[in-house]
Amino acid sequence: MQSSFPYLHDFFALFFPDLCAGCGNSLFNNEHVICTHCIYHLPVTNFHSDPSNKLAKQLWGRFTFMHASSFVYFRKGGRVQNIMHQLKYNKRPEAGFRMGQLYGQVLGSSEKWSKPDLIIPVPLHPAKLKKREYNQSECIANGMASALLIPVIADNLLRIENTETQTKKSRFARYENLNNAFVCCNKSIFNNKHVLIVDDVMTTGATLEACSIALLELEGVSISIATIAFAE
Which distant-in-sequence residues (6+ apart) come within 8 Å of 52 by Cβ? Predict the structure, then answer.
């Protein structure tokens, strides 16, 4: 909760404190969504500095891309899992925006990353979007865009197949499950553009692969990948 009257904000904070999405502790006035302690102790990957990082290696041979990177490691029971849980299931889209903002700042200062022309969040099927009320990947993309100062296009690549869960499927079965799940409405928007596809967590990469293949069919498109978390 924010107010132009700091004393009023402090009064309300006594009864309705702003809590850190990572640790659940109360935030100080100068902290936003994630406390300084949690930000300082995020398990960063530094994948952006290594073209042969673990995420990139998982995608090698599946489709052509320029860069592929994740911000932090996803570990069970850790603060990253808490943040992603708050984002996806506890109606805290601001957690995704903040993590995207932090990662955008990292990528924007990296000499090894080529700045993309635009950002595309991995889309949700309308049925799932209606149930969740927002697309967590779009929240992340908006945060990254605020740091990188490039536009987000969230309504041109659509998910038209409400696919079944990917759990316990083989890599080939996951790809088949997502084959033709995505369609581009106005293809000319993406022609000859360097597109950054953004998702929340990298697990198998099947969704990122399906999105990328749909976009790579367009004229002159080049792809980069960025996720917030990488599940080892």
Answer: none
Structural domains of the chain, count: 2
Q: Range of 5's domain?
A: 1-41
Instruction: Write out the H or E segment, with its range, that includes residue 188.
Output: none
Residue bearing the bigger pLDDT, 226 or 4: 226
H-state helical runs in the chain: 6-15, 36-40, 54-59, 79-89, 93-108, 126-132, 136-148, 171-178, 206-216
Q: What pLDDT is stored for residue 160 in this prediction?
A: 87
How do residues 112-124 score in pLDDT, each as one tens digit?
999 999 999 999 9
In whole angstroms, what is the distance from residue 38 CA to residue 16 CA? 21
9 and 120 belong to one structural domain: no
Q: What's the pLDDT tens digit per position in 145-169? A: 999 999 999 999 999 887 655 445 5
Residues 3 and 95 in one domain: no
Same domain, yes or no: 134 and 222: yes
